């Protein structure tokens, strides 16, 4: 299995599942990751996402559209949804810290 350690292999899998968010700014990545998490756990309708995130329904609709464009068919695959949930649970705390840091240090982006 090459030179990968258990931690390295896990990080690689998380990066693979969340690759569509990788090129976004820290703030955008966080918003869409939280939207994706809400879609997967609360239901992917705008009302459920808006309630889960405490945002207006119109904002939820816009974010859901962006997430669907990024993740496409993965959202219809039950196994992929489980992998995405697990990956998000692992990575969201780090992405929250990165977004907060980027907000405080705009040139560090």
**Helix/strand class:** mainly alpha
Helix percentage? over 70%
Uncertain residue ranges:
1-6
Average pLDDT works out at 90
Number of helices: 5
| Overall tally of structural domains | 1
- H/E topology pattern: HHHHH
* Total beta strand runs: 0
Cα-to-Cα separation, first versus last residue: 34 Å
Structural shape = globular
What fraction of residues sit in β-strands?
under 5%
- Biggest sheet layout: none
Q: From the alpha-carbon coordinates, what is the Rg to the nearest angstrom?
A: 15 Å
Characterise the protein shown here:
This protein is an all-alpha fold and 109 residues long. The protein has one domain. 72% of the residues lie in helices and 0% in strands. The protein is built from five helices and no strands. The longest helix is centred in the C-terminal third of the chain and has 27 residues. The protein is globular, with a radius of gyration of 15 Å. The N terminus is likely disordered.
Per-chain topology:
Blueprint: H1 6-17, H2 26-42, H3 46-53, H4 57-71, H5 78-104
Helix pairs in contact: 1-5, 2-3, 2-4, 2-5, 3-4
């Amino acid at each position: 299995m090459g030179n990968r350690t258990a931690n390295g292999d896990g990080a690689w899998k998380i990066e693979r599942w969340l690759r569509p968010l990788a090129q976004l700014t820290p703030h955008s990545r966080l918003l869409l990751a939280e939207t994706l998490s809400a879609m997967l756990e609360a239901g992917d309708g705008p009302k459920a996402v808006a309630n889960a995130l405490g945002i207006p329904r119109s904002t939820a609709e816009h974010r859901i559209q962006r997430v669907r464009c990024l993740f496409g068919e993965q959202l219809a695959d039950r196994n992929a949804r489980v992998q995405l949930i697990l990956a998000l649970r692992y990575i969201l705390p780090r992405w929250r810290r990165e977004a907060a840091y980027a907000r405080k240090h705009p040139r560090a982006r």
